[in-house]
Specification:
Largest sheet: 9 strands, mixed
Number of helices: 9
Strand content: 25-35%
Low-confidence stretches: none
CATH architecture of the largest domain: 2-Layer Sandwich
Number of strands: 15
Bound molecules: nicotinamide-adenine-dinucleotide
CATH topology of the largest domain: Dihydrodipicolinate Reductase, domain 2
Distance between the termini: 42 Å
Radius of gyration: 20 Å
Length: 347
């Protein structure tokens, strides 16, 4: 049985807790929360997020509870520390847990600063422990579909893609904190990091980025980036950010080009994936793959099942690997620089 201690009982701490309940071979044995301490007694009614179930009164019988991380790290019953803190706290908590001899699963982004990501990956290597980062996007059926198609080679060579992730200004958060590089890092590190990670995983590390965007202070608020590769056929772009009209719902999606197929995903259209095949009008064909029914927690169950398998087997997860998440944050910072310069930045 893999025994997990979660630190940070907010929105993601709750989602991870609920996901673990559906995963055989994993047990949440400890919880740590330093501020909203009523959550340590099971009162999760004030936890709110933008998807998933509302917070409820929980029965935490049999689970050890701590109001500081050092105390949870001293608990020998905990094998894996699951870090669900705001991103500014990821590096310190992760490095402390790795130094205490624990494996770590940490929410995205790995950290707010690129150097912190480098230090976190180095701390895992130094301690001989595993660091996995919760980039959940590849565990959505819609996005896993492209990975599997690329892996199998069934549609030929990958030629690139355009990725989008746009929503309205998050007035429900503290906006000064959201757009601060010490707070949440703005839409670049909160939202777009999902696509930066996905692009890094699918196409490799770009050699440069070229961006334009609207800034709010130093933080890009709405932006478009071209990811530059040596292969001239590989055309990869992304658009992300927040716009002002509150009626603008969150949407994410992609159009990915293979030699023999174009795959389109538009969230909230009812049929998340469309595969367009055929090079001539005569052989043109459209397929709409079906996926098993699931709910908002399902991608997190998929993600944390992959993490369980990696922790138990000791074999790294190619997709949750800390080094990939570190690269995603490096790419995001190059994009911030590129938006500020209105130009190209080498990586
Ligand atoms: N993968 C996704 O789809 C997704 C969605 C939302 C958030 N996230 C990520 O999850 C992380 C957490 O976000 P959230 O929305 O759950 O935040 P949150 O504010 O709801 O929860 C964070 C919790 O950590 C607690 N906390 C803060 N510092 C602490 C400390 N030092 N020790 C113990 N507890 C402490 C806070 O009191 C709070 O309860 C962020 O990195 C965010 O980017 C990921």
């Amino acid at each position: 049985m893999l025994k997990v201690g979660i630190v940070g009982i907010g929105f993601m701490g709750m989602i991870h807790y609920l996901a673990y309940q559906r995963i055989p071979g994993v047990k949440v044995v400890a919880l740590c929360e330093s501020y909203a301490k009523e959550r340590l007694t099971g009162d999760w009614t004030k936890i709110k997020g933008n998807f998933g179930p509302a917070g409820q009164q929980m029965d935490l019988t049999g689970i050890a509870t701590y109001d500081n991380l050092d105390a949870m790290l001293a608990d020998e019953n905990v094998d894996v520390v699951d870090v669900c803190l705001p991103p500014a706290g990821h590096a310190a908590a992760t490095i402390a847990a790795l130094n205490a001899g624990k494996n770590v699963f940490c929410e995205k982004p790995i950290a707010l600063k690129a150097e912190e990501g480098v230090e976190m990956v180095a701390a895992a290597e130094k301690n001989g422990k595993m660091l996995l980062i919760g980039h959940v996007l590849p565990f959505f059926d819609s996005h896993n579909y492209v990975f599997e198609a690329a892996k199998s080679g069934k549609y030929g060579k990958l030629l690139g893609g355009n990725f989008t992730r746009v929503t309205s200004n998050p007035f429900w958060l503290n906006l000064d904190r959201f757009y601060s590089m010490e707070g949440a890092g703005g839409p670049m590190l909160d939202l777009h990091v999902h696509d930066a990670h996905y692009i890094r995983a699918l196409f490799g590390m770009p050699k440069a980025v070229q961006s334009v965007g609207r800034l709010r202070g130093d933080a890009p608020q709405y932006f478009n980036t071209q990811f530059i590769y040596d292969d001239p056929d590989l055309v990869v772009t992304a658009t992300s950010g927040n716009i002002m009209q509150q009626g603008r719902p969150f949407t994410h999606g992609y159009e990915v080009h293979f030699e023999k197929a174009t795959i389109i995903c538009e969230s909230f259209t009812g049929t998340p994936v469309t595969v367009i095949l055929g090079d001539t009008q005569e052989d043109a064909k459209v397929e709409k793959p079906e996926f098993p029914a699931g709910d908002d927690i399902t991608p997190f169950v998929n993600e944390l099942t992959e993490a369980r398998d990696a922790f138990v087997s000791g074999k790294p997860s190619a997709i949750l690997d800390g080094a990939l998440a570190r690269d995603a944050v490096t790419i995001c910072h190059k994009e911030i620089e590129a938006v500020q310069k209105r130009g190209r930045v080498e990586i």
